[in-house]
Every structure is written in structure tokens, then in C-alpha cells.
Amino acid sequence: MATIDGNTLIARSLKKQGVDHMFGIVGFPVFGIAAAAQAAGIQFIGMRNEQAASYAAGAVGFLTGRPGACLTVSGPGMIHGLAGLANAQENCWPMVLLGGSSNSYQEGRGAFQEAPQVELARIYSKYAARPDQTSRIPFYCEQAVRSSITGRPGAVYLDFPDDFLAKQVEESEVTIPERCPEPSRTQADASDVQRAIDVLRTAERPLVIIGKGAAYSHAEKEIRDFIETTQIPFLSSPMGKGVVDDEHALSVAPARGLALQDADVVVLLGARLNWIMHFGLPPRFDANVKTIQVDIQAEEIGRNVPAEVGLVGDLQAVVGQLNSALDAEPYTFASDAAWRTALGKKVTENKAFVQNMMVDEAVPMGYYRVLREIRDQSPPGTLIQAEGAQTMDISRSVLMHSEPRERLDAATFGTMGIGLAQAIAFQVVHPDRKVICIEGDSAFGFSGMEVETACRYRLPIVFVIINNNGIGGGFNELPEDRFQSPASAYTIEAGYEKMIEGFGGKGYSVRTPDELSASLKQALDDTMPSIINVHIDPQARAKPQKHHWLTS
Ligand code: ADP
Ligand code: MG
User: Fold this and answer.
1) Among 90, 239, 295, 316, which is best to mutate for testing ligand 1, by the most ligand atoms less than 8 A from CB?
2) Which of 122, 271, 333, 378 yields a CA-CA distance of 20 to 30 A from 251?
3) So what's the pLDDT on residue 462?
4) Sign of CA dihedral 227, 318, 244, 546
5) Of the ligands numbered here, which is closest to the C-alpha atom of 391?
6) Could you give the CA distance from residue 192 to residue 186 in angstroms, rounded to a whole number?
7) Which residues pair with 169 in a beta bridge?
8) What distance lies between CA 331 and its chain's CA centroid?
9) What is the reported pLDDT for 88?
10) Dist. CA 469 → ligand 2 center (Å)
11) How many CA atoms lie within 13 A of 479 on its CB side?
């Protein structure tokens, strides 16, 4: 009779469940899983730290709707992978962390790299389990993937002791479950849909907020129709960008502060009222704001602010219901409303302010000039990763997206050091598109070694380091006694671009707009990755905000 081992069962089961990309680092006891994954047709991307591998797996989940996998060794390796497990869980992205673990029969004896891995994973996952025997591995793989994509998407963990992996079982004893179906597109209660439309009709200052749940749900067509029909102004969260074109006439992104503060009815489409949205509370929001909240997770409805109307269901389905209700009883927000005029005025003012910084040719450059160059040279459909506090924030206002799922950043968990991994995920999911990874110098440092990964797989990512000599910048030199350096200062004018040359990529060090323009052009045409190290003004800042709480 033919036999099959645990490694092969994992690989074939995951492949069947639609897992196409596995990021990780091999070692005891998972060498066999990576090899079996490749044999089963899963792309294996060998990374340099499990932390980055786990971040990449979560990004794949957001981009494809099926979990990316992260493979780690036992103990310390699995613990590094917890970073990405937590990040995916906080962002509601499917991913599966696969931890090798010490032999089950050595448990409690102080085995090599022994750790309570299932327990460690539990708090940051929807599902964490160790199969009870080799032959049942396929059952657990299906459970894990199904949990990660249904309901509110999230992270899952599977634990595989060494002795389960190598064990051979009779093929006739195992069944590999069929691919679990796409999650059903659940609809909201029809009477709630009607109530939502009734509340909208009463609005004097309505606002739609589009979050990354809308991008994840592929609700772009429905939301574009909804915005076009109702003519309500909208804002997008960082990764909700592009669900409706950022440059749509109804986008009030440049007047974000005013829009949030004065709106009387807010339609929340897959965005949580957490820190990113200042909890939906004053002073950022009006104390009497009414929310119409659409979310797949019933428990999310009413968090921080009681919802006027809660619509529990899938974004695409529920916005479709709203559109049908509007077909039956048309509603359009008045084109002459004072709200529209006030927002329009603010948009024009703020755009002019930023425009001045974007055309400033002074050397050293500031953030806006650098980002404008990236904007001008990016072909349509360019995928943007941005991180580093200021780099990320400012890039959001300069770089425009006309399609969803084209931007990744530190997101809900504020995870710095995620950038190189997300850029790698972007490029493996979309091999034919341009990927630009815009990094603050401190953000780059967390996972800088992943440039080797990008070079090895010939992923032609353009890494742009916006270098201000440290965390938050501000320093032009270090004191002679280095132990008196400010804690946030890094090497002045560090030559990060030289790193990539050791792996066959191309490095550029630039200071002027002309140098930036020429190097970016070359890098975008290159078939290998590049680093463009841009030495900006260490004192450069974002546009000053009117209230301190706008940046806190
Ligand atoms: P953002 O950071 O863009 O504001 P959040 O991550 O805070 O977005 O919120 C995304 C929300 O979208 C989560 O509350 C999540 O439950 C929800 N969500 C995810 N997938 C769907 C879906 N298919 N339909 C409806 N809501 C969804
Ligand atoms: Mg910096």
C-alpha cells in the first residue's frame, strides 16, 4: 500500500485550500514542509527573519482573500512569527502561521526549542491547534483556512511536532477535504437597510468613510455606485484608498479634519472607530454624530459610539442592498448644500498649501518633493508600500490610487518594520506590476536584510529610503562621545544603498530633485531591485496641523 508523510499532507491540504504562497525560514523540524510545499505547487519564498515572513503572509491574505502561509521552526522561530500573526489578526487579514515544534513524546522534558506554541498563538488568532495525529492533518488544515476567511477574517495557527511530520501513514486512511468555498456574502436585515436610507435622508452634513474592509470585500463597484447615486462626500482610510478613485470629485480627503468634525451622519463602510478614526468621539467628531455602520462582525457595531443603524453583513452585499433600496426610492444629497461648499473651500485651500511644498526645488529636499517625484513617475497600477511615521502619513496625501488594494502600510497595529515584507508580498502576488517601497530610514532598518530576498528572487522592487538620519530625524551630526547621542539618532547620512549591491541590486545615493528623477527612472526600468537612498532635510516635517490632537 502507498504511504504518505505529514509534510506532504500539509502541503497538499494547504494547496487544495487555495494557499499559493508560503514565506518562511527552514530548519528543524520544517525542512520537509518547504520541500513538500514546492512539490505541491506552493511558491516558497525563503526569507531572512520569520518576522518579515509572517508580515508577508498577512499581506497576501489581504491582497488575495486566501491566507498566505508563514513557515517557522520551533521555539524562537515561531515566536518571531507571532509578530505577523498579531498584525494580521489586528488588521482582520487571513494568514496561517505554521510552526514546527519539538517531538510530542518529549513534551515537558525540556526538548530542543520546546515552547507552549499553541497557547502563545491563541490570543492573536481565531484558531490555534495541533493535530492529534498525522492522518488528521488535512482536517486541521481545512478548519484553519476556513476559519481564517469566514466571518471577520483573521489569523490562524497550526502546530506540527517533528514526530508527526516524518511519520508515514497509509494513503487509504486519509481524506483531503475539498477546497472550502468562498465566504458567503451575507446580507443585512431588510428593515435596517430601510432605516439606513431614512436616516440618510435627514442628513445635512453626510459623510461616507471607506475602510480596508471594503477593499478586502471587493465592494468597489457597489460603493462607486452608491457614491455616484447619493453624491455624498467621502473619505478613505489609508488602505481604503482607491475603492473609489482618490481623485474623484466627491473625495474630501484634503479636508479630512473638517469633514470628520462637522459631519452629522457618517456611513462607515468597513472601517472601525478605533484610534485611526479617533474613536468616533469629540473633538475629532461631533458629539451628536449619527453612524450607519456596515461590518461583517456584529460585535463591532456600536463600539465607542452607539450606531444609529447597524448593518451586519458583507460589504459588497449590503451596499448592493442599499443601492437597490435607492433604486426604488431615489435620494441624492443636494448639490447646493452649504456642507458641500464648506468642504470644497477647505479642499482647495489645503491642496494649494501642499502644492507649494511639492514644487519646492530646494536642496536638501523635503518629503513632499520626494513623494511628488514618485507620484509623477509611477505608471498606472503601481503598488505602493509606505512606512515610517512621517513617510507613511505624507505619502497618503500625495500618492493617489484609482483602484483598490494598491497600498499597504503599518495599518491598524502601527507595525513599523513591515515594509520590505509587504513589498515582497505585493511583487509575488502581482509579478507584472511595479512595486515601490517607500521607507523611512528607521523603518527600513528593522528588516533591511530582506533586500537580499528581493534580489535572490529577482523581484524588481524599487526601495526608496527617505533618510533623515534617524527616528523622526532632526540631527546633522553625532556627538564625539557616541553614548551621548540622542536615542533617536542613527548614522548620519548612512549609505544604505551600498547594501543591495552585494546581492546584485543597484544602489543610488541622491540629494537633488534631478538626481532623484534620473535614478527613479532607471530603477523603474530595471529588472533587479534597487535602493534609492534620498538624503532629505533632517528637519523636514509634515504640513503643520491646526490642533495638536490631529497628530497625536
Ligand atoms: P481601516 O483601518 O481601513 O479603517 P479597519 O481594519 O479598522 O479598517 O476595519 C475593517 C473592518 O471591515 C473590520 O471591522 C472588519 O470586521 C470589516 N470587514 C472585513 N471584511 C468584511 C466584509 N467582507 N464585509 C464587511 N465588513 C468586513
Ligand atoms: Mg527617519
Assistant:
1) 295
2) 378
3) 98
4) positive
5) 2
6) 14
7) 4
8) 34
9) 98
10) 6
11) 7
Q: How confident is the model at residue 547 (pLDDT cuts 50, 70, 90)?
A: low
Tell me the three cell numbers of residue 281: 468621539
Ligand 2 center–CA 392 separation, angstroms: 11
C-alpha cell at 443: 523603518
Domains in the chain with CATH codes: 3-173 (3.40.50.970), 190-340 (3.40.50.1220), 359-535 (3.40.50.970)
Distance 273 CA to ligand 1 centre (A): 11
What whole-number distance in Å separates Cα of residue 490 and Cα of residue 483?
A: 12
What percentage of the chain carries pLDDT values higher than 90? 95
Separation in Å, CA 123 to CA 86, 90, 100, 332, 373: 8, 11, 19, 45, 43
Longest dimension (CA), the chain: 78
Residue 1 has pLDDT above 80, yes or no: no
Residues with CB under 6 A from ligand 1: 91-92, 152-153, 211-213, 216-217, 237, 239-240, 270-272, 274, 276, 295-297, 300, 314-315, 412
Average pLDDT over residues 359-387: 96
Ligand 1 atom at minimum distance from 411 CA: 2
The residue nearest atom 5 of ligand 1, judged by CA position, is 271
For residue 492, the ligand closest to its alpha carbon is: 2
